[in-house]
Amino acid sequence: MLEKKVRWAAKYPFDRDAINYFKSVALPIKDYVTEYKDVIEYAYNRALNSLRGRINLDWDNDYVEGISFYLAALIIAGTNNFYLYKRFSDIEAKRAYKILQRESIENILRLSNNLDLSISSEDEVINIFYIDFIRLTKGISSIHWRLYNFRLHKGYVNLHKKAFARLLTEVIKNKIYDIVSSIREIPEEIVFYSNKIMDNVTIPRKEPDEIIELKDRKKAALFPPCVKYLLENVKQGLSHPGRFTLVTFLHRIGYDVDEIVNVFKVTPDFNERMTRYQVEHITGMRGSRIEYNIPSCKKIRSYGYCIPDEICKKYNIRHPLKYIKIKRRLLSHEAEG
Ligand code: SF4
Description:
Layout: H1 2-11, H2 16-25, H3 29-33, H4 37-51, H5 62-77, H6 82-100, H7 105-114, E1 119-122, E2 125-129, H8 130-137, E3 151-153, E4 156-160, H9 161-181, H10 188-200, H11 225-232, H12 240-252, H13 257-263, H14 272-282, H15 297-303, H16 310-314, H17 320-336
Antiparallel strand pairs: 1-2, 2-4, 3-4
The chain binds iron/sulfur cluster.
């Protein structure tokens, strides 16, 4: 019985049963840092690997696996960086998704219940209220997840196990984010590991929210010359680095997958399925789940797409997003003047 409890807690350390279990058996933090140093080191590696997109599904000790989630959450919370909170939550949720693939319907129902998601099941089909379905699919950009693609019966969406596991991953992601962001006090012993994380990860520079407004096509006038060139040449077909640059750029300024796929519709031999697959891969929704950054100007130059204008030269632009910020500023000065 106890063995089963620990096993469950190792797989889903964020759920109600696991939290209750660890509340009763966790040791003081200082014990993990002094007496059981291998546990804190394990947790540190878990945190670091999550941020690097690596998932571990193979562990020896259920207790250490479970408790390391909490220690890793503390370490991440100690960075005080919301980007890292999100990254950690995303990858930990993906870990749970992989485990869920092998889970029985009974256990999936148990996990849903422990995460306060109300569902029912019949003959291997899981039924979820359509409002919950819409709420949970909001963050999933693939057109596949539109309500009209699913069977709806008396207000409930009918899903098979795998599809439901994907939805449950959204709940898990939010739950883990809540756990990390609700930690207010970081034990002194943990700060060392949080600092070590900050020294070992690259954090994309946060762009101001105003960049997102560029989704408005009318503001495409602010796009740097390299991106304008790529957009003008989509019709002719772009090289792989050209497509990569364009996809990362459009994604970063707020285009969703459907909008990016639409941009490529004019490509000769356009294949929607393949394009969507590639876009989802580059934007971190598939495969390695790495959300790739826009290449630097140096890189774009090496691809042969850098066609610098006066702004690029005068302001020594090193990144396409920097170009936008400067051009926006210049245009607003012109408008005021
Ligand atoms: S300098 Fe940078 S922003 Fe300007 S065209 Fe070249 S790659 Fe694009």
